[in-house]
Amino acid sequence: MKNKKLIAALIVAVLGVAGFTVSQTEVHSIVQQFFDTNTVTTPATPQQPSVPTESLDENGRELVAFEKCVDGDTFWVVSKDNGSFKIRLSGVNTPESTNKKEFYGNEASAYTCERIQEAQVIALEYDTTQKDSYNRKVVIVWLDNQNFNLELVTKGYADLKYLKDTMPYAEQYRAAEAEAKAAGLGMWNKS
């Protein structure tokens, strides 16, 4: 018993130095494995974004992996060819949730972050009609082959504050916003 406690302490110390955090259950399992088989399986390392092996999808859109969320219309992605970079959604605007808090901003951010993490395939279509003053790439995001920018407008998480008629999908966005407003969805529900 004394040896098991000593080995458990050593394992926790070694894994801690290596950057792992382990639960009491994992330590017990590791010690048990050590005594049962004399081999130890270490806990998994924190998961990094799995960079797509292909550069483009069948529609010519850049395939990316989600890296981290900033807010409802801005986040970081990583791609095979371009590494890690920050993107801004084209044509749509979600309420602020970072520096300046706006009505429905936290909900829009939470929805975006959750929805992107659930997606199996994330692809970017670049909007060449826009320039971003913060050096973000301006894109239409496709989640599992669905226009995510349009989804945000349809569900009332985004408005069209910065939309111009020359931008891709402008007509669809305007129709979706009108429907969301009429139905009082998301940010349009002020009650």
Automatic annotation (TrEMBL):
- One matching Pfam family is SNase
Domain named TNase-like is located at 60-190
Q: Which PROSITE patterns match?
A: TNASE_3 (PS50830)
**Top-level taxon of the source organism:** Bacteria
Q: Which UniProt keywords apply?
A: Endonuclease, Hydrolase, Nuclease, Signal
* Any GO molecular function: endonuclease activity
Signal sequence: where?
1-23
Stored PANTHER family: EBNA2 BINDING PROTEIN P100, SERINE_THREONINE-PROTEIN KINASE 31
Q: What is this protein called?
A: Thermonuclease family protein
- Organism this protein belongs to: Culicoidibacter larvae
